[in-house]
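Work Package 4 report. The design task specified in the project plan requires that, given a folded chain encoded as structure tokens, an amino acid be chosen for each position. We show below one input record used in the internal validation round.
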């Protein structure tokens, strides 16, 4: 049996973490084996790389360094955790994955999408999500929701508004270009409404995925 790989994408403050937790609980109650994870991080080595990436004080980090560190974390994550879980038939729910690199480093920082796609393919060994949910939210609204959690305010959150707007537009373009994989969810709705929408999408895909 092969598993099912779902990734959650979206700008800051889109509520990904809350929604992943709720979906995981729902699927587990239905008897599915679920692995919840996130990027950057998800493994011991990945979490060490995460600290370097998000630390204040690392403002000197060059974009290419940032790109490669995200891929280093991802390579470890895929090989150590995601691929084995999928081989065991589990559902993997991942808070951010390769599309974050395309949105943030590609559309946000202006790195070549072609170069990034090559690096991503290497890091992931070609693994792609079966389903990607874009939790779409207005950039200013997202940052407003995020700001009170000051201890979680990281180096990338601190980027200018224009950067975050490019990220959001990038996500929407990616979703449009690959509609069979992406579903855009309006994350400005109340938490329960977003939760219900996500459940419906995932259940439909799981049914369609059954042999
Ligand atoms: P995190 O605190 O996990 O943010 P969020 O709760 O918004 O997911 O920080 C992850 C940050 O790293 C976030 O700003 C997005 C960014 N990022 C990239 O720029 N490229 C990537 O490939 C990944 C995985 C994340």
């Amino acid at each position: 049996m092969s598993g099912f790989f779902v990734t959650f994408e979206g700008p800051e403050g889109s509520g990904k973490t809350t929604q992943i937790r709720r979906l995981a609980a729902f699927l587990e109650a239905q008897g599915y084996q679920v692995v919840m994870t996130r990027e950057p991080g998800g493994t011991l080595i990945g979490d060490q790389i995460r600290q370097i990436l998000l630390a204040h004080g690392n403002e000197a980090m060059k974009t290419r360094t940032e790109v490669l560190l995200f891929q280093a974390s991802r390579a470890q994550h895929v090989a150590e955790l995601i691929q084995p879980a999928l081989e065991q038939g589990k559902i993997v729910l991942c808070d951010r994955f390769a599309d974050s690199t395309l949105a943030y480093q590609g559309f946000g920082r202006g790195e070549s999408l072609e170069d990034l796609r090559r690096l991503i393919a290497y890091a992931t060994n070609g693994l792609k999500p079966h389903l990607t949910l874009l939790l779409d939210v207005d950039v200013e609204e997202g940052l407003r929701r995020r700001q009170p959690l000051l201890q979680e305010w990281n180096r990338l959150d601190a980027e200018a508004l224009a950067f975050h707007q490019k990220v959001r537009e990038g996500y929407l373009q990616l979703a449009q270009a690959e509609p069979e994989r992406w579903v855009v969810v309006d994350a400005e709705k109340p938490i329960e409404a977003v939760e219900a929408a996500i459940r419906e999408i995932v259940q439909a895909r799981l049914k369609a995925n059954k042999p």
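The domain at 4-209 is CATH 3.40.50.300 (Rossmann fold). Validation will be extended to a larger panel in the next phase.
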